[in-house]
Amino acid sequence: MIAPIIVTVIVLFFLLFYLGVLVMSVGESLGTPIVAFLSLLIFITLGVMIAMVYILFQRLKEIKEEDTDDLSKY
Question: What is the pTM of this model?
Fold first, then answer.
């Protein structure tokens, strides 16, 4: 049950780092096309982060509902 939480946290930190590097590197040369591209990347990254958290909650709910002994079915 702890593994999905750890993986999600690691991926979220990676995405935050990636987003920070993008903002810092593109922040030096602000032009209209660059700002539009950066905005698109920010929204995509935030969307992926929100989806990761949503999927984490679904997975934790699924783990709680699972049978404790799946081998008893066979």
Answer: 0.73
